C-alpha cells in the first residue's frame, strides 16, 4: 500500500464535532447523513436477533501493576490501550494522531496484529503483536476500528459490563460502546471481547482484591451470562482492573470460564509464559514515538 503512494494516515479528517477521526473517506460520506451511533443501533439490533429470545475471604497476596519488565528477550509484545481522544488527556489516553502513527508504523514495518487465541500457536508470524483495549470507550469506533480494518489488525476490547452503553463517571464521564456496537464490531472477526469485570471496576483502591471471593465469582458469572445473552457466546479472556489480582482470584476466574488472563505487569509474552498471567505494555499519552519503536524492536 505504501508503494502506491497511499497513507492510511490520510483517513484522519475533521468530524462535525471538530475532533480528528480515523474514518475512511467512504465512511465519512455516510456519516454526513447518519451518525455512527444511530447507524450501529440499527446494525447491532439486527445482529442481536439470534440471541434475544458473603463472608469476606482474603484474595491476597497482591500482584500489582508496578512490576518491572518481565519475560525474556524475543517475546511477543501485548499492547494495552484505554481511550483515544484529542479532547481528554491523561496518562492512559492516546491521541488520535499518536495511535494512528503507531498503527501505521507497525504495518509499514511488517508487524501482524494477531488475536489472543493464537498466542500458543506455533509458529507465530515473525513480527507478531497483540493489541488490547481496556474499559470499552466509544472512541474505539471512531479512531481505532477503521485503522484496524485497513491494516487487517485484530484487537481485543475488555469490557466493563455495567458501563456498556453508558458513561464512565470516574474517567471524565466519557461515553462507552454499546452492545449494538459490540455486535457490529465482533461480526467482522476483527474484534474479540474480554471481561474487565461486570461492576468491580469501581473498586479503585485494590480492584478485585477489595471484594469477597463469592462477590468476585458472582460478578464474573454475571458477565458471562450477559455476554451469552448479548453476543451469543461467553468470553475466555479477562483483564484485571487496575492490574490487581492474586492466585486465588485467578482460580476463581478459571472457575468462571476464563483461561486467558491479562495483567498490567510490564513485559513480553514468551514461549514459556502462561496464558493465565500475560504481561502487557501500557501505551498512553506520555509514551514518545521513539520509545514505542524501541520497545517493539526489543521484543
TrEMBL record:
Looking up SUPFAM superfamilies in the UniProt record yields: Glycoside hydrolase/deacetylase
The superkingdom of the source organism is: Bacteria
- Residues spanning the membrane: none
Tell me a Gene Ontology molecular-function term this record carries: hydrolase activity, acting on carbon-nitrogen (but not peptide) bonds
- InterPro entries according to UniProt: Glyco_hydro/deAcase_b/a-brl, NODB_dom, Polysacch_Deacetylase
UniProtKB keywords? Signal
Name of the protein described by the UniProt record: Polysaccharide deacetylase
User: Per its UniProt record, what Gene3D superfamilies does this chain match?
Assistant: Glycoside hydrolase/deacetylase
Domain annotation NodB homology: ranges:
127-299
Q: Which GO terms describe its biological process?
A: carbohydrate metabolic process
Positions the record marks as coiled coil are: none
The record's section on CDD domains has: CE4_NodB_like_5s_6s
Q: Name one Pfam family in it.
A: Polysacc_deac_1
| Species whose genome carries this gene | Syntrophus aciditrophicus (strain SB)
